Amino acid sequence: MSIALTELVEITPENYDVEFDIRYASYNNFTEKPVYSAAKCFLHVEAAVKLRKAIKLASKLGYRIKIFDAFRPSEAQYKLWEHTPDANFLAPPDKGSPHSRGVAIDLTLIDSDGNELDMGTDFDAFTELSHHANTKIPAAAQQNRFILLGIMTASGWDNYMNEWWHYQLFNSREYKIYTDLDAKTGMM
Questions:
Q1: For labeling, which of 37, 65, 119, 129 is most exposed (least CB within 10 Å)?
Q2: Is residue 32 domain-resident?
Q3: Considering 7, 82, 163, 174, which one is annotated as catalytic?
Q4: Residue 19 in 3-state DSSP?
Q5: CA dist., res. 131 & res. 159, Å (int)
Q6: What is the pLDDT of residues 17-64, one digit of tens each?
Q7: pLDDT (tens digit, 9 = 90+) per residue, 53-95?
């Protein structure tokens, strides 16, 4: 489904063969309250193409993708920053997050039974243990992170070294920032 006046497309489990756990639409996030009013997922059309490639590569290895977050309206970025103003894990809203441009995605891999692979920390664990190359997590979790990293980079995504779950397009700053009102997503 295209969104009027934007280049964002809706990602659904039916159209992309992914699982959802849109954390900011629930209490299960670091703010401990919903930030979004609806558990929806959108990406810029260019990012959606790369997501399809990642889904295909993951499938060849026997995995599926679970999405925690993708497009994040700029209003939501302000709310997250107000709660936890930490530039190591959140983009300052005045600079604009790749999420607010629709070109970033937070995700993990799940096995054929729908179980998340052990990545050493939970999503949005704002600690050094979340860094991609952290070797203080179990070897199996390190291996799982490298599998995810391989799938995503082979699909054309750039990673953020402080968060094993975060991937974005390489030229993310070149894309427009959207509010929920601009994008007409109905997320806020």
A1: 37
A2: yes
A3: 163
A4: strand
A5: 11
A6: 999 999 999 999 999 999 999 999 999 999 999 999 999 999 999 999
A7: 999 999 999 999 999 999 999 999 999 999 999 998 999 998 9
Instruction: Tell which residue, 20, 44, 62, has the closest CA to residue 157.
Output: 44
Return the DSSP state at 116.
B
Active site residue 163: yes
Alpha carbon distance 129, 146 (integer Å): 14
- Residue 17 contacts by C-beta under 8 Å, 6 or more apart in sequence? 55, 59, 64
Check which CATH number belongs to the domain holding 20 and give it.
Answer: 3.30.1380.10
Global confidence as pTM: 0.95
| Domain annotation covers residue 27 | yes
Q: Supply the range of the domain harboring residue 144.
A: 8-183
Half-sphere exposure in the Cβ direction for 33 (13 Å, CA): 4
How many domains are there within the chain? 1
* 24, two tokens: 């900011």
1 is a domain residue: no
Inter-residue contact 79 to 37 (CB < 8 Å): no
